Inverse folding.
């Protein structure tokens, strides 16, 4: 019934063709979840109601309300927000930081075999054994690697040797990533973090939609991954290659990606939401990179570095 009520309001709005221009200066930009008009960290019917009210009264509106990013508040924003709310929590979440957007992809939890299992077993290295069963709860993971623009807007500057703003940020240590994440969490009030190694691999495999590819989204590295064989050793802008089964880009290739876990050998017991060994000397990295061989882009391949390491091909992606 409530939905009917909102639809009636929308039809009314269409009838009057109501649109407000958003005169938002650079300093008025908000940071947070797009569509979260009431700033409570989630999308709900209340946000739709407030958005309609803003539109009807020409009241305060901000960039979180401008769902389709055309700098106007209109019926199109209301319609898109209703779509998002009706699909919530199965939809992706779109965030804005100073008008720069990034998307977190919903990964429905499930049980899978991690390591030297289907699609990975024929070329697996010693540290991908034993394959073992992992069960994960629902989570979100970055649709793309964190790019330089996002780093710039959160941290008010870039690390050295980052010069193409839509390329993944690199030369960031695991510890630098924690600083970035802490700042991002202060801006948004949410709990972003690095993905665990198991979350990274489940997402790279395509989650519950997995086609058991060798690389993330294909058996042909050239379709999905920037690596030594096709990149001229350059980083590329995020999201240029084909996405995987979940719509996630560059999990194979482009920049290596820090994961949360300390590196350690796998154990054979089934585990639930594993977070890796309790201590160690190196943190896990996954996915291969633009100046490494395609074989390092295989989903199961594991790499690690001490957490203070900065390298020109090593970046990260967010989890939530
Ligand atoms: Ca809300
Ligand atoms: Ca709009
Ligand atoms: Ca990558």
């Amino acid at each position: 019934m409530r939905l009917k009520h909102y639809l009636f309001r929308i039809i009314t709005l269409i009838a009057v063709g109501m649109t407000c221009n958003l005169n938002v200066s650079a300093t008025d930009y908000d940071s947070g979840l797009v569509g979260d008009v009431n700033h409570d960290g989630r999308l709900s019917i209340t946000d739709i109601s407030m958005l309609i009210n803003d539109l009807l009264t020409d009241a305060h509106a901000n960039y979180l309300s401008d769902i389709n990013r055309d700098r106007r508040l209109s019926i199109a924003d209301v319609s898109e927000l209703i779509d998002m709310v009706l699909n919530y929590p199965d939809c992706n979440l779109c965030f804005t930081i100073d008008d720069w957007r990034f998307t977190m992809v919903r990964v429905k939890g499930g049980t899978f075999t991690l390591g030297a299992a289907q699609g990975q077993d024929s070329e697996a290295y010693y540290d991908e054994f034993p394959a073992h069963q992992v069960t994960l709860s629902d989570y979100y993971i970055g649709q793309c690697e964190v790019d330089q623009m996002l780093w710039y807007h959160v941290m008010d500057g870039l690390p050295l040797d980052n010069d193409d703003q839509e390329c993944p940020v690199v030369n960031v240590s695991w510890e630098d990533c924690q600083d970035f994440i802490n700042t991002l969490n202060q801006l948004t009030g949410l709990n972003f973090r690095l993905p665990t190694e198991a979350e990274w691999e489940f997402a790279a495999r395509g989650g519950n939609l997995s086609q058991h590819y060798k690389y993330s989204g294909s058996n042909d590295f050239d379709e999905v991954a920037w690596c030594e064989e096709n990149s001229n050793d350059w980083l590329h802008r995020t999201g240029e290659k084909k996405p995987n089964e979940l719509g996630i880009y560059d999990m194979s290739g482009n920049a290596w990606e820090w994961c949360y876990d300390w590196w350690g050998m796998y154990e054979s017991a089934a585990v639930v939401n594993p977070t890796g060994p309790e201590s160690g000397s190196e943190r896990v990295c996954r996915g291969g990179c633009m100046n490494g061989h395609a074989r390092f882009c295989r989903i199961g391949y594991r790499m690690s570095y001490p957490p203070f390491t900065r390298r020109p091909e090593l970046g990260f992606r967010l989890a939530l």
